[in-house]
Amino acid sequence: TPTPTTTVEWPLTCTVGPGLEGAIACETKVGYVNGQKGWLVYRGYNIFDLCAYSSFEEVSYLLLHGSLPSPAELEAFNQKLSTYRDISQTLRLLMNFPVEQISPMAALRLGINLMRQKQTFRDYEGALSDQAPIASDEDSIPMETLPKGDREAIYQFDKPHFIAPMDTASDLGSSTELESCYRLISGVAVLTAAIVRIRQGKLPIEPRRDLSHAANFLYMVTGEVPDDLQTRIMDVNLILHADHGMNASTFSSMVVASTLSDIYFSIGAGVAALSGPLHGGANEEVIKVLQEIGSPDRVELWFDRARKEKRKIPGFGHRVYKAYDPRARILGPLAEALAQQNPKMTLLMKTAKKLERTVVESLGKEKKIFPNVDFYSGLVYKALNLPSSIFTPIFAMSRVSGWTSRIIEYLEHNRIFRPRAIYTGDFYEDFPRQGDSK
Ligand code: ACO
């Protein structure tokens, strides 16, 4: 087990490269990555131990609260998360937008924004029952701006009682920042499952409170309770993606939070940053590349061409890891275990293994390029029969634990993020240049 050590004093002088490489943004106790040694640590615990003995719920509690929960605390936390699965009012609103016409990440961001609206549902209810809408506060969406649709249809969820009554619904905003974090952890998973269903022309499935976070998610996507292996692998996958240092999406969400914007906007910013192909979008690209290659015997030819074209191979390389990504080390065998259950995966898996060997033999020593977590997460989702368009939202539904934990921690001693740029443009007047930084 690695022992995280603090070797620097804060504030410190550091050398910063392009892409803020080497810049130190803040102090944290949430998580630690050692890229040279391939370590990943959450609140002092080795990722290998957490994956072996913990659950996503327990890890989320650990990240947010700083210590592992007692059995009673975990029970209470699980209860809370399952209660917060009821975001029926947000889903009602979401379904009034053309969700199937926008990307799943855009839909997720929209859904998170809608979760933020505390008064909206009341406005909406008023309009639905032809009463005068309750005067909206500045946060709410006035009814007139919602696209017109078949308003009756949005009530036709799979189960008649899906829409909870107003007074018991948990979807009414929250009193504390921490409650909003719990609400977001549950809500992003429910939104992701609902977005898959809506894109398939189906209605969202009512969440089940008796299932774990991972099992409920898979159930809400497929309508079937997953088996133990599928549930456990999904759970481990969520643990692995929950936090990872000052990555682009975490930093983006913290930058927004540092302006004292609210947590929903901040998490929306994390979702936006995660959607890019250099970050969370890579897992979808991995599957596209494996399908493009087609079979193991075509890997070398494909790789030589990709090198000539100076193409970045999705699922390989990392800004921090210059050793094998521990997350890929854990996920690789799990992807293989799932693939064995699913004959459609055999060719894809064999192609992936060959590509991994080829890339590592060629670029491992030379450039320290190894598979990253995205190389195997896409294969895990594919083996679980999840559509590739929601691979990145699944990443978000896990990383929301890390985003919220780091935001809460940072806000304890908040200072707005405000780096500078080196001006390399022209001066068309003779400005006095002393100081130069203004
Ligand atoms: N395939 C081929 N060569 C690569 C790859 C790759 N996937 N990644 C890096 N390199 C090479 C670069 O060409 C560069 O070579 P050079 O020094 O000869 O120019 C060198 O390695 C350093 O690469 P940079 O792009 O400078 O590394 P950076 O730290 O800026 O980027 C990144 C890291 C974005 C992850 C990059 O490795 C990449 O684009 N990988 C593919 C996309 C991907 O898998 N993203 C997921 C990242 S993990 C995550 O977000 C969960």
From TrEMBL:
Keywords: Transferase. Pfam families: Citrate_synt (PF00285). It catalyses: oxaloacetate + acetyl-CoA + H2O = citrate + CoA + H(+). GO terms for biological process: carbohydrate metabolic process; tricarboxylic acid cycle. One of its GO terms (cellular component) is cytosol. The active site is at H318, D374. Pathway: Carbohydrate metabolism; tricarboxylic acid cycle; isocitrate from oxaloacetate: step 1/2. GO terms for molecular function: citrate synthase activity. The keyword Transferase applies. The keyword Transferase applies. PANTHER family: CITRATE SYNTHASE, CITRATE SYNTHASE, PEROXISOMAL. Belongs to the citrate synthase family. This is Citrate synthase.
